[in-house]
Amino acid sequence: MNAHPKPLSPLTSDAEAEDFVETADLSEYDLSGFTPMRFEIEPKAASLNMRLPAALLDAVKAKAKANGIPYTRYVRMLLETDVARPK
What we know:
Elements: H1 14-23, H2 54-66, H3 71-84
Helix pairs in contact: 2-3
């Protein structure tokens, strides 16, 4: 790995990004600022309605905002993570 990685320049189009991924050696770049991205693909066919203490809902909304996602997606992510965890 390169001792002095290059900064990653902004990619301004899909074509530019595709070309970069096809040709670049990613080990030359500093990717330490990247965060994992999760894509929502599966359709949502069921709903859940529940009552919560206002303080708990406020805390969930604050955590979701800190993660940059809607609070309903954050709750779904928590449920998915817990269900997928081995016993």
